[in-house]
Design a protein that fits this description.
three-stranded antiparallel β-sheet; alpha+beta; 10 helices; globular; two-stranded antiparallel ribbon; 40% helix
Length: 284
Amino acid sequence: MNAPSEKTIKRLFALSQNKCEFPNCGVPIVQPTGTVTGEICHIKGKRPNTPRYDETQTDDQRHAFENLILLCRVHHKIVDDEPARYDVDLLQEMKEMRERYGNVELSQEEARLALTLLNSYIGTDGSGEAQVMANSPGAVQQRKKTSKKLSVKNTINTGTIANVVNFRGKKSPRPNYTDGTIGADPLKRNYIEYLVTQYYKFREADKSFGAFSHAAKFHYSEIHTSLKSEFGASTYWNLVSRFDEMTDYLQGRIDRTILGKRNISRRTRNYDSFVEYSARQTNT
């Protein structure tokens, strides 16, 4: 298989909600007009000498849902130009965070846009093995190029029966975290994610402080890179035994932002404690 399957791209399109999966971006991958402004990207490169290439992967694994992420063209270039910063673990975390709350259904029009994206990918990739067509108002079809014949298969009925593509509630699978890691403990993992999100919100807010706006320039990967350097493993792969140290570290980073310092001076809290967060989750 030299390209992702139609089913894979529809699932990816649904769970990403047709948005760039780089945090705080959300640029549409395909515009309502059908103009493709984003790209299907490989977490582990699809060819030798491409970023994060893994020679042990099969072609099927390279084009599988788990190895694909949708990014706008700007962020695709950023993550591929800085593979040491945007490593496999970080890209998988980006994907998991965005797709966790994604849709499980595609409308007929969304399915059509997903196929437009796949068609664009195949055309750009130049594999020449398949072409996806989206006829309006006719059915969405897929055809394979052959020397003499075209094999056509209807995939979506435009009648009243099949207006929705349903993925039966499948969400993006989480990485298979090892027992004893923070990632394997849902409550602790979610609290770390909550603090990371708070940190980025505070850094974004720092942009409003005039002369200090330069301090708000940062990469999304900054805090995850810092955590890996400080604790020896990617954020959620650290041992639960280091959870308290990690929360202290993240809380300190939040408190040291410009907004964090101002809040402290005004006796305004910057975040919930783990106990408060846990209680709130229990009551929801």
